Known about the structure:
This protein is mainly alpha-helical. It is 47% helix and 11% strand. It has a three-stranded antiparallel beta sheet. Strand 1 (70-72) and strand 2 form a beta hairpin.
Amino acid sequence: MPRDDTAPEPTPVLLDAGALAGLLADPHRRGVVAALILGAHTLEDVRVATGLDARAAGRALTRLVGAGLVERAEDGTLALLAEAFGLAARAAAPIERDDDVGDVDPDAAKVLRAFVRDGRLSGIPTSRTKRLVVLDMLAQEFEPGERYSEAMVNLTLGRWHADTAALRRYLVDEGFLDREAGQYWRMGGTVDA
């Protein structure tokens, strides 16, 4: 059943490099992340792999889930959102030129220069024409043919703007992304040849 995007939902926090390092400074949380990387999928798997008691493992997992680094499915299985590490690294990388918007036509470049500051959206355009330019840029964050969980879409969009639900909804409504059963994939936007 498709998710109802009109219901309010908490927006996952995009971890910056400092927050990620702080989260992993705790040896229990670091052990849990290592266990997940090595294939643990349940609390019991994590407990066995780390040697932590159930309370310590549960506490570390709760913190990692709350921070948006681990996703807990409805059936209780756990998945590390490993892409968060790359997103944090890219977000921490220095921006070469504030006005470099890539290889786009001059009208699109003008819109992007107006709405992108320091690698983030300063706002979501109210004009549909301008919003389509911004949405096309955001669609480039998703690889054609790849499927993404809603949490991963939120992490990716959170790098650009705090209102991930609105951006996700616009991307779906305008045909840049499609979704089914909690999975998203790219359907449109500019593609490099």
